Here is the input.
Amino acid sequence: MADNPQPSDSVIKVHQLRKEFGVLKAVDGISFELKRGEFLSVFGPNGAGKTTLIKILAGLTRASSGTAIVAGYEVGEGRAEMRSEIGVISHSTALYGDLTPLENLIFLGKMYGLENPKDSALAVLEDVGLAPRRHDRVRTFSRGMLQRLSIARAILHDPSILFLDEPFTGLDIHASNVLKEHLQTLHNKKRTILMTTHDVSCGLEMCDKVALQVMGRFAFFEDVKTVEKENFEALYFDAVRNNQFTMGIRQHDTRLKT
Amino acid sequence: MNLFMSQVGAIVWKDFVTELKTRELFSAMFIFALLVILIFIFSVNLSVVDANEVGPGILWVAFLFSGTIGLNRSFMLEKENDCIMGLMLVPADRTVIYFGKLISNFIFLSIMELFILPLFMIFFNVDLLAHLFPLLLIIVLGTLGFCALGTLLSSLASNLKSREIMLPILLYPLLVPIVIAVVRMTGLVLNGEPLSEMMNWIGLTACFDIIYIGVSIMTIDHILEE
Here is the structure.
């Protein structure tokens, strides 16, 4: 692997990615590409391997085989340069409960090597509407507030790529709308976003590309313009109900087209 | 290098701010060490036994046992809310995490030891002030080795279900060379021997400190990765 990023139009390039836990194939031969500024929504039933896919792309776990190039760097080699280009929101908040939001973000700002961590922290807290609570302990926050703080944590260093693992979980309608607005703003700023979600309306509304992951494989991967919401919803619910990959699912592509 | 140092400093700062707010770690370590010393005072007849003979062993048992509580807590803090994931995502070498936690552990344990030493002096009627410099040197060397290995193993044990049990089981056997050396050196110092008489022990302890840190640098990447 060269020291410099690999020149390519694709910001994320995944080829035959696999991750096995014993006999379980969490990610089973996934291949796709995302260009700069594209937004991919990945749907799929629980246990489909969506979180594992994000963990591999974020460099948090190694793939069993295949390659993934993120921001020009091959993941899985612990590259610090690649990590400065990505922001991640996962199921867990990765926030210190006994610290305040400001302290949490100043700490992360220092870890990211930001020039003025306090100013950056205050700016993102303002963005997510948590500035008035910046001196309260994170432990006292509600689920929705934690999620907003997670967003602040993920965008603190202004990453060019965002991996969002079910970011709408536990949010009330207001917080959900705030998050949508933020994601839309980031999308407009040409940030590349990969989001896993169960919310079909929201996921389809925001994305450029849509994927359905079932039993570790992308059963469906298309441009959102070619997808009709009702048909995709039906296919997704089928996948959730059956929760098994059948190659036949691909044959239903025709009913998805507008 | 500057970024490396500032990242290590950030972890130490974060651990200190957390400890100042909670005071969980220091109070637990201090009370445990105090209890160990009190138990030994009641179980050893100091009118029959020479305090300079049994004192070093008791002192280091108090330091190491209470230090283990601190080590167990050290990476548990990072496991809460999966904060370790947040650390793994920052553009830093994994050794930053190791050195940050090592320095935090070393400072917390050293502060606790500074509080315990006067109490040990009073309870065992031992004059530590006359041998303060060599004693501090030995304590620094021993504490560094303990924290160097302990930080590595606590990061490993934090992934295990029975982490509180596993850490001492993994740690104490590997610490034997350092424990023997520091207990012997402390005994010699309390008996008024100069440092020049124990250079072999000092060299041995320093070597093990370096070995523990070296092994940690080489393995921390694999241990922290899922």
Remarks:
- The mean pLDDT of chain B is 92.
